[in-house]
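User: Please predict the structure of the protein below. I'd like the answer in structure-token form so I can feed it into my own downstream comparison script.

Assistant: Understood. Taking the following sequence of 94 residues as input:
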Amino acid sequence: MITWNEKKRRQVIKDHRVDFKKIGDVFDDPFAIYSEDHGHGHSEERWLIIAKSAEFGLVAVTYTFRNGDTRLITARRAEKWMRRLYEQQKNRIG
């Protein structure tokens, strides 16, 4: 199950114009790029996925696993370097 903090969801919509409710399909993208997110020294293991969402196009989503669920932390549209990486991945696999 995919979960999130509702207050954080509203903040992400405001800041990045991406809605957690509409990005669950990124986990179905066969060309998705997954990596561990070491960037912020968190007390929990966090992951980054760069993948396509039907609603928002290419996005970067930070998430973790909590109590058996996939917990979304933040999301935004992919940056230029992420788009290049994704296209390289797609060309390798596709």
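That's the full token string. Residues 61 and 75 are 4 Å apart (CA to CA).
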